[in-house]
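chain below, 200 aa
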Amino acid sequence: MQNTKRNSTRIHSTNNKPCTRRKKQKKIAVIQGAQYTDLRIECAQKLEQLGYTTLMFANTDELQRNPQDLLSIIIQTRENINPNTTLYFPFATTQILPILTYLGIDLFDTSRAIYEAKNNNIMTNTNIYPQEKYNITDNIEQENIKQLKFTIKEIQENIKNKTLRNLTEQKAATNPEIMSLHRLLDKHYQNYLQKYTQLY
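prediction:
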C-alpha cells in the first residue's frame, strides 16, 4: 500500500498471492452510495462507528469519469469523517493521483496498472497508450507499476517540499479531465482548499 496522508503515500499491491502477517491486519470497509454524496457520507460515518479506520470508495472508475461527483463525494466525505481515517481510492489512473492526493485521498493500489497491462495498454503519468501503436516497453505490467511507483514518489517529494499544488497544476496542463477537476475545485471549494490544503 502507498499512503498519501499528506506526508506519505501508500500503494497496495493487488496481486492474487495470499499474504500472511504476524501483525493484525487493518480491515478495509467500502463506502457505498453510488453518485449520492449524502449516502456516501452516511455510510462512511456508520463504518467509522463500527471501528473501521480505512475506508475504500466504491465505483471509482465511474467517479473518475464524473468530475463534479468525484469532487463532491471526496471533499464532503473527508469533511465529515475523522481526519485520521484513511481514504482509499482504488483503480485510479496514474495521471489523476496527484490531484486525488491534494483532495485528501491517502491510499492507492496497483489494480489499474495491472488492468491496463492485461488490456495491452501502457499507463504513464501523462497518458494511457495502446501497445500496438506505441511500442514503449516489452513488459507492460512491470512498466505500469514502475510508472505508478514513480508518480507516488513524485507526490511524496512534492508534499515534503510543499509544492503539491504546483504538481497538480502541471498535470492539469496536459490533461483535460484534470483541468476540469482543477477548475471546479477552485471555483466551488475555496473554503475546503484554505482549510485542508497547501495553496502553493
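The chain is about 50% helix and 10% strand. Residues 140-160 form the longest helix (21 residues).
thats it, cya
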